[in-house]
User: What shape does this take?
Amino acid sequence: MSFVTKAASPQASIRIGGPRYDVLMAALCGVFQAGAYLDLWAHVHRPELESFFTPWHAVLYSGFLAVAAATSAPLLLRRRPGVPWSRALTPGYDWSLIGALAFVLGGVLDMLWHTFLGVEVDVEALLSPSHLILALGSTLMLTGPLRAAWRRASEARASWAAVLSLTYLLSALTFWTQYAHHLGRPWAAAGNRPTAAAFPVVAPDPLFRGVEIQTVFVAHALGVASILLQASLLAGIVLIAVWRWGAAFPPGAFAVVFGLNALAVGVARDQYALVAPAIAAGVITDIVVRLLRPSRARPLALRTVAFVAPAAYFALFFVGLAATRGVWWSAPLWSGTIVLAGTAGWLLSWLMAPPTVHGEAA
Assistant: This one.
């Protein structure tokens, strides 16, 4: 298939597009996101790092420039007078161009923010308004191949470029929520068991059981909250895929999505041993999807997959944690967390496929 499809009339645009264009964009987006996780690795392992001119930034911004150039090329090279700019782009990549512009805007605002308000550290670095604009812009760019495949009526089976783009979406979400991620800090690991009785604060409010805040309570709460947040994101990604493609999602695709995401976070946070359980959970999800064939017309199957995917993921997460580092959480705590992780996915499925109201037209 050619990259270029000529328009039938002067009022139509000549578009660069098709599955091979998606492959190119997916590859460039992979470099872009790899740069972000390499930069995360650098900040984790070299906290004294302050310079902008680093090898990791070189990968990140080279990836951004490549994606931005490939996205804007159709607009710059193929647009004709009188043709709207949106029609010069392959369907799905209009938002990628908007994302590139937002990323540039976020970069300028970030420079001004740092100049007048200083440099953020830790969690605040992920939540500053300028960084959130960067997050929005980069995510719009990374999901271009997914949107293009979604809008292509002929694509009854998801392409691997779409699978990779879906992986980038999950990895973008986990990057910007790494402060509450089970691989960022596995709170249930034996080595993360608190040794101090109380979590010191200026003035505990409210008092917990008449005393200061207990560190065990904090570790439990943060651990459970991080799992439930990531379970919701994971289930959302699974539901997006099966909503559009159902059982036509390629065999092994969820193993790739879960595995590459866990690898990105795991390498940045030195959690290599917990990558394999994520891949195994993806394999289980692939099998369940193939067996149950979930779709909007099969809501029970859809809800079952939405429950099984995060529940299996975190059940295997605890297995991997127990085998490699030990688990200090009690059985009621870790087992209940697994059930709640599945429940979070199950509840999301009701938003995607709500029950039909009696008397309402289908």
The chain is about 65% helix and 0% strand.
